[in-house]
Design a protein that fits this description.
By secondary structure, the chain is α/β, with parallel strands linked by helices. The chain is built from five helices and nine strands. A five-stranded parallel sheet has the order 3-2-1-4-5. Strands 7-6-8-9 form a four-stranded antiparallel sheet, with no helix packed on it.
């Protein structure tokens, strides 16, 4: 399995990458980043491009990428409307539902430090909160969480 993590020019992409030890990872950025070491960088289009989803789909197909972890808010919102297109090619966009994005995204601006990745409702990477408490019905996404005043607080992980 291989994945594409966007926002490669931000340390958040590499923070997420550390959660995956056995996955082949590509790092996408709208900026040109030279390859170094074992890291694979891919220039991706801006989410503001009218053909963003189709160009990103082509990149995924050309590089045999089957999971996309968008970390830029504009990318997440744009890809939320293109999820079915990617799934037709067996490529999973790891983002929550549009309801969660619209309703919960900015509710918790506090610094939440723990990361968790959910795919199909299963924790695939990161540390699960105590007692496996996942107080929302989201099945996909990269989330940050913290315990504040004995309550588990979640927010979408973005840059």
């Amino acid at each position: 399995m291989s994945g594409l993590i966007t926002a490669a020019s931000d340390s958040a992409a590499f923070r997420l990458a550390r959660l995956f030890s056995e996955k082949v990872l590509f790092f996408g950025s709208i900026e040109e980043i030279p390859n170094f070491g074992d890291k694979k960088f891919i220039k991706i289009p801006s989410a503001k491009s009218p053909s963003f989803a189709h160009e990103l789909l082509k990149i995924c197909l050309d590089n045999e990428i089957n999971e996309v972890y968008p970390l830029v808010l504009d990318e997440i919102i744009e890809l939320s409307t293109s999820r079915i297109l990617f799934e037709e090619f067996n490529i999973k966009i790891i983002i929550p539902s549009i309801n969660f994005i619209n309703l919960e995204l900015l509710n918790h601006s506090k610094l939440l430090i723990n990361l968790i990745v959910l795919i199909n409702g299963v924790v695939v990477a990161g540390d699960c909160p105590p007692n496996n408490s996942l107080p929302f019905q989201e099945v996909n996404g990269v989330f940050k969480w913290e315990i504040i005043d004995d309550e588990v607080i979640f927010s979408l992980f973005t840059v």
